[in-house]
Every structure is written in structure tokens, then in C-alpha cells.
Amino acid sequence: MTDSAPSLRRHPGRGYGRLTAGLAAPLAIGLTLSACGPSPVDMVEHPVTTTPSRMAGEELQRSAEPEESCAEQPAPAEFPGGGDRDVPSEGPGGDSVEVPRSPERILALGVGAVDVACALGLQQLVVGTSGLPWDADVYLPTSLTDLPKVDLSVPSPSEAASTARNLDPDLIVLAGTDGLDDAVVEALDAVAPTVVYDADPPSWTGATELISDAYGRPRAGGDVLLDVIERTRMTIGAATPSDSRVSLVSVSDTGGAEVQDPATLGSLLLESVEAGRPPAQRTRDGEQVPPLPESPALGDELDGDVIFAIVGGGPSEADAAREVFASDRWADLDAVGANRIFVMDRAVWEGSGPVAARAVLEDIRTSINGIAPDG
Questions:
Q1: Do residues 363 and 308 make contact, with C-beta atoms less than 8 angstroms apart?
Q2: Which residues contact 285 (CB under 8 A, 6 or more apart)?
Q3: CA-to-CA distance for 81 and 308, rounded, in angstroms?
């Protein structure tokens, strides 16, 4: 039996996806966690804090461990029983896919697919992953990060399909990107019904809806996003982000520092909580906008009332961070002199999905008005 049900899916620019870019209704998430795990830059001797530990090694309080990041109980199946149902898919391929009414073995190919499974408490149903960042274990449990990986970069799509077939999924959810090969989707679809979602960061809320629907829990996915909205309102009320100019800086593995890409989860959520930004870092809907004529950029473009430094993503990041934080340019920033520098985990702030979003919002709430302890 095929069962078509009303979907929460929104078209680009509508619904929750529009909210993520920032503006009418702020977002937050109802899961209890922060960006946790060992900092990639522990032991750097500077007065900065990380999430969750100081770079000098002192432990800070945090709201949860990675092993507690997923919902404790699985969201109940909303379409119990046998048979299939139609759900939307972004393509390549058709606009809809017939999937099991209540999938039991999910192959989550993309960080968004893994994140949503965690948010819905379906981590025990996931049999394999792909696309997780190197340091995903700072906020996701080992039950997800240690699963078998499907390498989608192999030369032949049939190789990826062979790996997937060995995991015996009854549903595959795949991150769709500009470079996604139709042949990959076709090969995976021969293994199990394959739903493609839009993995572009500004579309993460729409992707959450689509993925939740594919998992047979569309209403639960909608509830997660509504909780996101409520918690972002709470962040605005508790921390008044509009009162601070928040500089968002990415520390690269080459030892440089630059303004963070505005089309990343952390930047989008700063928009959602209506955070102030330095003139050179103003964004709208995930895109950089020029400074207002009456507010010319003053001083270094990296500076602000507070700096969130995004670090992580590879084993060389610790050395890169040490180089940046020891530089004359960094020492001359006003926020450094005021001890208002906080190091954030790249896997979280460049993540995708409600679990990562909750971690970002908790970072904002707890750090935006803070003073870093002495190093």
C-alpha cells in the first residue's frame, strides 16, 4: 500500500528555511547539549575559552556530553505498519520517492541526515554514515561517529553502492550538492529507496523537514523546529545579542584568520538572534552586505566587542590556532585586550541540523556577554 501524507516541506525562501536566514522569527533547539569534547586547541597559553574547555586546559561547565546529545527516546513512528508512502526528494531523480512507512535500517549519507536522526532519537536505526566532519565527535555520540562510512568520492558509483548494500539499509537519505552525480543517486537507489535533501547550509531547516518526513516522523521534525524558534527567542531575551558587535572569525589550517563565511550555520544563527555585527561583517540571509555609509569599518575587520573564533576540522588546526593567537595582528585586536575571545568548535558552527543548531545557540547565550578567564 502506498500512503501519501501531507508534508511539512517548504519551498526555498518559505517556512522555516526563511527563518534560518535570520529574520522574522528566531530559531533555537530543544535538545540539551553544548559543543562538547576535547578542544582542538587545548594548551594554547592565551586568555581564551573553548567549548567546552579553556585553551589552557581548565574545564568549563557544559550542558551535556556528546553521548547525551541525541534524544533519549525515539520519536514514535507516525505511519506504523507495512507498505510504502511517498515523500518529497530534491533530486537528482524524481520529485518524490516511495519509502517504508516506518524505516528500520537508515543509511544517513550527510551530516544533516545524521543530525536529524540524532535529534529524533533514531540513532539506533542508523547503520552507516558519510560526510561527517573529522571532529564530529565533539557533539555527536560515538554510536553515530563510529558507524561504517560510505565513501561517495570513489571513482565508480557502483563501489559506493556495493558498500551501501553490505549495510542492508531499507532507506537511504543523501545530501544533495551541486556536484552530486546522477549516477550515484541511481546506483544507491538500486540498493534502497534514496531520498535526496538540499545540503546547502541556508536550507538546513527545510532539509530537517524533508529528512524527518523520510524517516516517518514529519510532525516530530516540525516540533523540533518549533522548539528551535522558542529557544532562540529565549536567547534573545537572556543575552540581548543586538547589544554586542559579534565578530565571527575562522582560523584556517594554514595559520591564517579570516571573517567566517556568512553561509554557515553559526553565522545564520547569529542573524536569527539579531546579533550585532562589526560593519565589515554585516550579513543578510546568509550573504555579506556592505557596511552602511554612516557606519564605516573601523580598525581591523576581525575585531568586535567579542570574537568567536572557529577552530577545528583537522589534526593541524591546533598548531594553526597557536600561530594565529601568537601573532601581532591578533594581539592588537581590542577584543583580545578585553579578554573577550571564545573558541568554538568548527564541526558545530559549520554543522547542519537541529542538534548542531542547539549547540551554537547555547554557545551564543553563554559566551556573548562573557569575559574569558585568565589563561
A1: yes
A2: 21, 22, 23, 202, 271
A3: 48
d(CA 30, CA 227): 5
Contacts of 357 (CB under 8 A, 6+ apart): 27, 28, 29, 204, 228, 265, 269, 351
Give how far Cα 125 sits from Cα of 26, 54, 134, 171, Å. Answer: 31, 35, 22, 10
In this structure, the chain runs to a length of 375
For residues 375 and 84, the answer to whether their CB atoms sit within 8 Å is no
d(CA 228, CA 222): 10
Task: Centre a 10 Å sphere on the Cβ of residue 59 and count the other Cβ atoms it contains.
Answer: 8
* Residues ≥6 apart with Cβ < 8 Å to 250: 257, 258, 259, 260, 261, 309, 310, 346
**Predicted pLDDT of residue 298:** 61
Closest CA to 248 of 290, 289, 285, 276: 276
Helix pair 265-272, 354-367: axis angle to 10 deg: 60
CA 211 – CA 209 distance, rounded (Å):
6
pLDDT band at 322 (very low <50, low <70, confident <90, very high): confident
Which DSSP letter does residue 130 get?
E
Q: Please tell me the predicted confidence (pLDDT) of residue 81.
A: 87
pLDDT band at 166, cuts 50/70/90? very high
Closest CA to 336 of 362, 301, 372: 372
Q: What is the pLDDT of residues 59-117, one digit of tens each?
A: 333 334 688 899 999 999 999 988 999 999 997 888 999 999 999 999 999 999 999 99
Q: What is the structure's pLDDT at 373?
A: 63
CA–CA distance, 78 with 190 (Å, rounded to integer): 26
Residue 147 Cα distances to 46, 140, 210, 351, angstroms: 36, 12, 23, 18
- Which three cell numbers, joined as nine digits, stand for 210? 524533508
DSSP sequence for 243-308 = GSBEEEEEE-TTS-EEEPPSSSHHHHHHHHTT-B--GGG-EETTEE-PPPTTS---S-TT--SEEE
- Please name the residue that has the C-alpha cell 549495510: 167
